[in-house]
Amino acid sequence: MTLTPHTNGTCAPSAEGVLPGRVLIVEDDAILAVTIEMTLRDAGIVDIEMCSTTEMALVALRENRPDAIVLDVHLADRDDGWTIAELVRSLGPNSPRIVFSTGAPRDIPPEIADLGCVLEKPYDPQTLVDVLREPKRRGIISRLRSALT
């Protein structure tokens, strides 16, 4: 298991904080998707939607905006799951938090990886729960205001 930290430390696991209420799992490996789902349910998250394709994920984002997305970046139907991350970024400051789940973290363009936390497969599913407990990363404008005051 590897956590890929970014400049603001959003990937440092923590047992503190509140879990998101609604999570979208975008994963085409059925066994891993169910493992993630069971782990999140055991942690207390009850509103979980699973998608195995990019198209299903895009529909889910349009219909039921989640608080967080666990995103496999190499789906069987498309090999660029970061397309979904770019869409999420366009949703504005209240966009869902993103946790990238990948066996090849170096394949994610750096500007996309900076949109969330990157967990390298295989990882302990409890690490995902710990990462989801972290406070959501604030936008650049909020961080700049805080630094100036």
Structure description:
Helix 4 links the parallel strand 5 and strand 6. This protein has 149 residues and is α/β, with parallel strands linked by helices. The N and C termini lie far apart (38 Å). It has one domain: 3-Layer(aba) Sandwich (Rossmann fold), CATH 3.40.50. Helix content is 36%, strand content 19%.
In short:
By secondary structure, the protein is an alpha/beta fold. 36% of the residues lie in helices and 19% in strands. It has helices spanning 30-43, 54-63, 82-89, 110-113, 125-133, 140-148; strands at 2-4, 22-26, 47-51, 68-72, 97-102, 117-120.
What are the salient characteristics of this protein?
149 residues; alpha/beta; 6 helices; 6 strands; 19% strand; disordered N terminus
Question: Please, how many helices?
Answer: 6
CATH class: Alpha Beta
Summed up, the domain count is 1
Q: Largest beta sheet: what is the strand line-up?
A: 1-6-5-4-2-3
Oligomer: single chain
The fourth-level CATH homologous superfamily is Response regulator
Whole-angstrom Rg: 14 Å
Mean of the pLDDT scores? Answer: 80
Report the structural category: alpha/beta
